[in-house]
Amino acid sequence: MSVKPLRLPAPAKLNLMLRVVGRRPDGYHLLQTVFQFIDWCDWIELKPRQDGKISLSTPLADVPEASDLTIRAAKLLRDAVGIGWLGVHIAVEKNLPMGGGLGGGSSDAATTLLGLNALWELGLSIDVLAGLGLQLGADVPVFVRGYAAWGEGVGEYLTPLPDLPEPWYLVVTPPCHVTTGAIFSSPELTRDNKRITIGDFVAGRQENHCLPVVVKAHPQIGEAIKAVGAYSASPKLTGTGSCVFGTFDSEAGAQNAARNLSAEWRVFVAKGMNRSCVHGALGIA
Predict the structure, then answer these.
(1) Cα 278 to Cα 6, 109, 127, 230, distances in angstroms
(2) N or C terminus: fewer CB in 10 A for the chain?
């Protein structure tokens, strides 16, 4: 086992489209979506321990340490391999907003799984790690697999989309927290939308079916959509929000819009990526 700590990125994702096309008997919604990574990240530091303990620096406010996704990921991985003496101390540099639809918690969990697989020298395959990740959340597998993808089911059935454009994005974070469960339980959410194909998406079918419900519950998000729309055609909501994003051909264009919007909104500029930066950091092909 390596004795050196690992410091790894946990990138955000954007949902370039989100369709709600059904509901399973267990209440989970059936989706069609497109995931792409951006180069705005949390950072995860993993320091090996020899005493079998799994611990966390600075737990998130209102999140018990045992419930933190990085702790859960580490314990799940250790239990899966049945080596009880493996330990780690985890430190999270949290940059991605909670409740923003950027997948920060899922990405943190995925980076923990990938990093500990390397740190503990376990040699588990990506398929095995993705299967473990699904036990932690529907979005974790896409971060484990590390490629832009078309997602179906609850988001776990993934088809790689390696040739998506990788534009610059302006992302706006409105001052509100969206609870995904509240959006998906809303009686106003349409759940029987028609399925489409990847070709339909490429041709421009890029709706987010959660948007009307989210905007009604959080008017600031509608205001953010309008603000971004002044600089970028067809601004979108990622996931169930709250973050809103616009697409730009150049970094200069995105930075110009960011300067103009930053007086009123929390904004950042990021590059789209079809491969996750954590895969690059770990040398995963």
Answers:
(1) 11, 12, 16, 34
(2) C
150-200: pLDDT as tens digits:
999 988 899 999 999 999 999 999 999 899 999 999 999 999 999 999 999
CA–CA separation, 107 vs 236, rounded Å? 21
The highest-level CATH class for domain 6-162 is: alpha beta
Distance, CA of 245 to CA of 225 (rounded, Å):
8
* CA-to-CA dists, residue 158 to 17, 183, 197, angstroms: 14, 23, 13
pLDDT, position 2: 65
3-class SS of residue 247: strand
Give the residue range(s) of CATH 3.30.70.890 domains in the chain.
168-273
Residue given tokens 């737990």 in the structure block = 59
Task: Enumerate the active-site residues.
Answer: 13, 139
Q: 3-state secondary structure string, 54-117?
A: EEECCCCCCCCHHHCHHHHHHHHHHHHHCCCCCEEEEEEECCCCCCCCCCHHHHHHHHHHHHHH
Write down the residue that tokens 């709250």 correspond to.
Answer: 242
| DSSP conformational letter for 22 | E
**Sequence-ordered list of residues with C-beta below 8 angstroms from that of 136, at least 6 positions apart, any chain:** 69, 72, 73, 76, 106, 109
Fold of 168-273: Alpha-Beta Plaits (3.30.70)
CA–CA distance, 75 with 60 (Å, rounded to integer): 18
Average pLDDT value for the chain: 95
For the four alpha carbons of 171, 172, 178 and 183, in that order, the dihedral sign comes to negative
